[in-house]
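Figure 3 (text version): structure tokens given as input.
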């Protein structure tokens, strides 16, 4: 996706805008198509399928009479079924009154409660399916690392010659026998200094003693969008030789130097390919949600470390990839809900919420890092959109499902006045949240 930034007249804001349209377009199309196709299977006819809001840019009518269109404002989309007043599935009494009994049966509001429920739930479910497919597809493409202590991929490091070869089985590290690949990293992390490791390995039928470079060097695996590292121009694959005038031997050295900086600018000496370049970075105090659900505030620059050598990987079966995709999708949901909980409790600042501008910036930064980063972003946002739409707030899918549940139990829908009030309150909450998130985006943009 670096191609986006390299197109003539494309860069900066326009590059982010194109990436944003791609990310949100895919997620929204899948969500709305879920509503549309399940509704069609349930015998509910659709008048309009719109990708975006506002004036229509282009469109066509299919053989079923559904008008498909792309609209000017790419901030969402909607499916308007027969009998709907608009894309929020509010009933249009005037239109419903003029429908024949046969057409009324094919309208959204004339369908059975279970059909309407399936149609509404299909949007978020489609988002989850997209996430599972993307995460699972990445597992099939990249492979999945094992914990067997057998060397797989070996990264290159400036000035280092690695005696290890793919397929070597590591028997011991510095005299300590190991059974798991992760023990190599654990034992290296416990060393007082980042010195080479003494490994006993099995290579074919031979047992050999070899020296291997420290496996956790200051090598950048990824750069977080909108981070200090992104602002400074760090890129995946960079080897940070020194920071603040201090020579770095390990990624832990980099982490300690950043934390001890107190947020003061640091001069970096970076090896990128065949070149050595100088960068300046200003670490930022950042609130971070850890994998265990705790919140931590510390000075960071926003880079991930890359190991020098990795375990062997295997290609999972298609069903195994589905399971991996589902597990990663659930992880995103759990992390998102945990973050929302900490924001409500006041443990995590509400300024962590991102609106359209923030998503556009993240999309542009992810696109610059390549197609892989953009695919992961699509999977994460698709999961988040699916989850948020299930919240029991009127105008959202979860609010509609709540009302259908009441209708199924009571034998009748909520009173029209109650529906109007609920929809107004729900719409107001959603709009206020969007305005607040957009305010956060603008503040981040101006302060950076």
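Below: residues designed for each position.
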């Amino acid at each position: 996706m670096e191609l986006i930034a390299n197109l003539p007249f494309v860069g900066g804001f326009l590059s982010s805008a194109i990436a944003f349209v791609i990310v949100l377009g895919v997620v929204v199309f899948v969500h709305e198509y879920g509503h549309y196709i399940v509704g069609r299977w349930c015998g509910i006819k659709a008048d309009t399928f719109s990708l975006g809001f506002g004036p229509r840019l282009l469109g066509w009518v299919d053989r079923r009479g559904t008008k498909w269109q792309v609209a000017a404002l790419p901030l969402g989309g909607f499916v308007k079924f027969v009998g709907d007043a608009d894309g929020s599935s509010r009933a249009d009494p005037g239109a419903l009154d003029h429908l024949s009994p046969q057409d009324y049966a094919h309208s959204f509001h004339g369908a059975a409660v279970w059909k309407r429920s399936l149609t509404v739930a299909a949007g978020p479910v489609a988002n989850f399916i997209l996430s599972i497919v993307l995460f699972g597809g990445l597992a099939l493409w990249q492979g999945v690392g094992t914990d067997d202590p057998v060397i797989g991929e070996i990264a290159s490091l400036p000035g280092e010659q690695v005696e290890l070869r793919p397929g070597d089985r590591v028997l011991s590290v510095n005299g300590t026998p190991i059974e798991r690949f992760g023990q190599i990293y654990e034992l290296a992390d416990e060393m007082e200094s980042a010195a080479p490791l003494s490994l006993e390995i099995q290579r074919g039928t031979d047992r050999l003693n070899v020296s291997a470079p420290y496996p956790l060097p200051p090598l950048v695996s990824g750069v977080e969008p909108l981070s200090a590292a992104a602002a400074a121009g760090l890129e995946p694959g960079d080897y940070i030789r020194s920071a603040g005038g201090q020579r770095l031997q390990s990624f832990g050295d980099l982490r300690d130097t950043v934390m001890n900086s107190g947020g003061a600018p640091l001069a970096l000496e970076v090896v990128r390919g065949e070149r050595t370049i100088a960068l300046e970075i200003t670490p930022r105090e950042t609130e971070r949600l850890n994998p265990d659900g705790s919140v931590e505030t510390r000075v960071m620059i926003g880079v991930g470390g890359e190991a020098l050598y990795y375990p062997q990987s295997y290609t999972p079966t298609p069903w195994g990839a589905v399971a991996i995709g589902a597990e990663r999708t659930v992880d995103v949901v759990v992390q998102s809900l945990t973050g929302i909980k900490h924001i409500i409790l006041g443990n995590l600042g509400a300024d962590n919420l991102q609106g359209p501008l923030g998503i556009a910036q993240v999309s542009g930064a992810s696109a610059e890092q390549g197609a892989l980063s953009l695919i992961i972003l699509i999977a994460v946002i698709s999961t988040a959109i699916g989850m948020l739409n299930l919240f029991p707030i009127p105008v959202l899918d979860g609010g509609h499902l709540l009302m259908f549940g009441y209708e199924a139990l009571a034998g009748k829908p909520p009173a029209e006045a109650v529906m109007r009030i609920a929809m107004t309150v729900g719409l107001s909450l959603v709009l206020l949240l969007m305005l607040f998130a957009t305010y956060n985006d603008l503040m981040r943009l101006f302060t950076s």
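The radius of gyration is 26 Å.
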